[in-house]
Design goal:
By secondary structure, the chain is of the alpha+beta class. Helices cover 25% and strands 26% of the residues.
């Protein structure tokens, strides 16, 4: 199905199943421990050996020598692989992930050897027996020290043009009655999902099967095949349950490649999990940024000129953190400029983390907007409303938003939160020793879509089976896909079985970029539409006049049970292909975050007292799972504001706090009851589901709302995240 015109009325609009809160259909499996994660396919791979990765102790240089004799002789050891005996692999390009291919070291904790043994403990112990000597080279580890060397990245690195604009920013800024020029910094951050990167690999003759923790099954097939020099039909990837990803599992990592290499060399299945203390340096993270924002406004607060410049570092040819993305579209202003600049660093690889670009860009933009509001003497909510724009401000009125309810989110949020009680002057509200402050920030996340396919079978008993390689990374994919099929075919959700994340199934959108829920259900919608047509024809009905309801197909006065039409079963494959609507309309999800904090006047400790998010994200397919996504995003946003930071040792080029003991994330005691409100907002230009992405919207802007609340409580405007006690305390008197 080609989606190239706005969706008209369709069966999803009935709202009998879709749009209704449902428990996760996979919930019972998960809470009972029956849902197998990547490392847990014991029955399928009963005789697996265990792998353990040896990682480098330097960040830049070469391996001068490597001695594996003691490791090879250790109890239970079956195989030791280094660059000296590893097989040839595909080139280091794109998202291929060759391992152990040379003596060169590009980042700290780079894999330098694989140990495979009969037990995990034997493999781990033998890893400590590998003797390595290095020829260390000077590295570039400090973004602030290297920023003078920043250069314009390629469009591939920047995922589009690194620079954008409209009008003449310099002239508009120079002529503006009121100006603001501020710089914010954000640190490196780690995904820290509950489930580590893990893989079991097995070869059956020349075909590889991997059970792995991955968000994009089709990409994993492509990249494993390219790395291992296989035809794609020789690789099968299964990732039925993923214990969190947040972008770290969009691409294959060392575990998948090394498990496959070890299994082939040993002629025995190998299971390999990257140890938690290795993950932060060995896999990916969110890169640090330095962001400069300049606003020019009139006395009434209307933006005349807006510029956002961001610098981040990464491995050479690595990805850019697109921190200016939201600034291109969030607020009005005739004269505009954004730019992304890049610095080559020798730190571990940076890549996508939940809401890449917007999550860190809004940390700066939405605090700068508050700074402008104070300078103008205008309420921060009102300033945002005055600068609303219903079209893409860079492209002009010919590119309207498909739907945009930012103003409605701000107004409803202000009313529900009690924003009118806020004191504009900082430090005016107290609760005993606690300084109390209110903060607000807008939420924005681009609405992305990806082509997606599914196979739908009506079984002889009238039940429905849906198969697609879509993943569920804790977001509720199983449930919203079941809801979609149930709505389209007129059955109960309990009559739908969903099988996901096997590359033998039709290729889906996968989970990432907030495109998964909307795109994957649209693919199921399209397949179900094809099945509806076939079933109507089999029943002798006019396709345009049938109604699927209560397990029957009805038209006029006649009703036929689905089981009767099914015969021995009817199977179809279909999918959605997105056309030009993403070019014709600006598409994004919007929201507003309101936060109340308390700051201890003696210590500078910040406590979140309450928080409200109001979101407009198209049709909400399942309010229960969507709310859960927002709660998770809000929690991550609080972490980004107050505690999350990969601390860089700028002497040796590694993240010092590389475990959950020292990389601080919010815990239950840090998070009060959070409230989420969804506005009615069906978007017929987004997909046949009329939904939009919500999984990442919840984090976008949250940290800025916290930081703005801290300022309102204390008068401490901290422009260097996270807002830790040592940064706040000097501002307290």
């Amino acid at each position: 199905m080609l989606f190239d015109r706005p969706a008209g009325p369709n069966p999803i609009d009935q709202g009998k199943v879709v749009g209704v809160a449902h428990d996760r259909i996979d919930g019972p499996q998960k809470v009972s421990g029956q849902a197998p994660y990547a490392y847990e396919y014991h029955a399928e791979v009963a005789d697996a050996a265990y792998g353990y990765i040896v990682t480098s102790g330097i960040a830049k240089g070469k391996i001068a020598s490597i001695d594996t004799q003691d490791a090879e002789a250790a109890p239970g050891v079956l195989l030791v692989v280094t660059h000296l005996n590893a097989p040839e692999q595909g080139p280091d390009k794109g998202d291929f992930a060759p391992q152990l291919v040379s003596d060169a070291i590009s980042y700290y904790h780079q894999p330098v050897a694989l140990i495979v043994a009969e037990t995990f403990e034997q493999a781990r112990d033998a890893a400590h027996l590998v003797r390595l000597a290095y020829a260390e080279e000077p590295g570039r580890f400090d973004l602030s020290q290297e920023q003078a060397k920043a250069f314009r990245p390629t469009s591939t690195q920047a995922q589009g043009a690194p620079d954008s604009g409209a009008g003449d920013f310099d002239a508009g800024y120079a002529a503006a009655p009121v100006t603001l020029d501020v710089t914010y910094t954000t640190p490196d951050q780690s995904h820290m999902m509950m489930e580590p990167h893990a893989t079991i690999a097995r070869w059956d003759d020349d075909r590889l099967t991997v059970w792995t923790s991955n968000q994009m099954v089709n990409w994993a097939v492509r990249d494993l095949a390219g790395t291992l020099r296989l035809a794609k039909d020789k690789v099968r990837v299964i990732s039925a349950f993923v214990g969190g990803g947040f972008g770290a599992k969009l691409w294959i990592q060392a575990d998948a490649v090394l498990a496959a290499i070890g299994a082939r060399m040993l002629d025995r299945p190998v299971k390999l999990a990257i140890a938690r203390p290795q993950i932060m340096n060995t896999t990916t993270h969110r890169p640090a940024t330095i962001q400069r924002l300049r606003f020019g406004a009139d006395a009434d607060g209307r933006l005349l000129a807006i510029a956002h410049e961001s610098i981040n570092g990464n491995q050479p040819d690595g990805a850019v953190e697109t921190a200016t993305a939201q600034t291109k579209q969030l607020y009005a202003g005739k004269d505009r400029m954004t730019s992304l600049r890049f610095v080559d660093l020798d730190l571990p690889v940076g890549n996508a983390m939940r809401a890449p670009g917007e999550a860190v860009g809004l940390l700066a933009l939405e605090c700068a907007i508050d700074e402008l509001a104070e300078k103008l003497g205008i309420d921060p909510v009102e300033l945002r409303i005055r600068n609303d724009v219903q079209y893409d401000p860079e492209k002009g009125p010919d590119t309207p938003f498909s739907s945009r309810k930012l103003v409605e989110c701000l107004r409803m949020g202000a009313e529900k939160f009690g924003w009118s009680d806020r004191q504009a002057k900082p430090g005016q509200m107290r609760d005993g020793k606690w300084l109390v402050g209110y903060g607000v920030a807008a939420a924005f996340r681009s609405n992305l879509t990806m082509d997606s396919n599914a196979r739908v079978t009506l079984r002889a008993d009238g039940t429905v089976l849906v198969e697609t390689d879509m993943t569920d990374i804790g977001t509720g994919s199983y449930t919203i896909i079941a809801q979609t099929a149930a709505e389209m075919l007129g059955v109960q959700i309990g009559q739908v079985e969903v099988r996901l994340a096997d590359s033998d199934f039709p290729t889906s959108s996968g989970s990432g970029g907030s495109w998964g829920g909307n795109s994957a259900t649209a693919g199921v919608y399209a397949a179900c539409e094809t099945l509806r047509q076939q079933l109507a024809q089999k029943a002798g009905f006019n396709v345009s006049e049938v109604v699927f309801t209560d397990g029957t197909v009805r038209s006029g006065g006649r009703s036929v049970p689905l089981a009767q039409i099914a015969g021995d079963g009817v199977m179809v494959e279909g999918g959605i292909k997105f056309g030009s609507l993403t070019d014709d309309y600006a598409q994004a999800s919007f929201g507003a975050h309101f936060c109340e904090v308390g700051v201890d006047s003696d210590t500078g400790e910040v406590r979140i007292r309450r928080m409200l998010t109001v979101a407009a994200a198209g049709r909400i397919l399942n309010p229960k799972t969507a709310r859960s996504q927002c709660l998770g995003g809000m929690t991550m946003g609080i972490g980004a504001a107050l505690m999350e930071e990969c601390v860089v040792d700028t002497r040796h080029g590694y993240f010092v706090n590389h475990d959950l003991a020292e990389y601080h994330v919010p815990v239950h005691a840090d998070i009060p009851d959070l409230e989420v409100i969804f506005l009615e907002d069906t978007d017929d230009k987004s997909s046949p589901m009329k939904a939009k992405g919500v999984g990442e919207l919840g984090i976008c802007g949250v940290g800025a709302a916290v930081a703005n609340a801290v300022y309102n409580a204390t008068g401490a405007r901290i422009r260097d995240y996270p807002l830790t006690m040592d940064k706040i305390l000097p501002h307290l008197t």
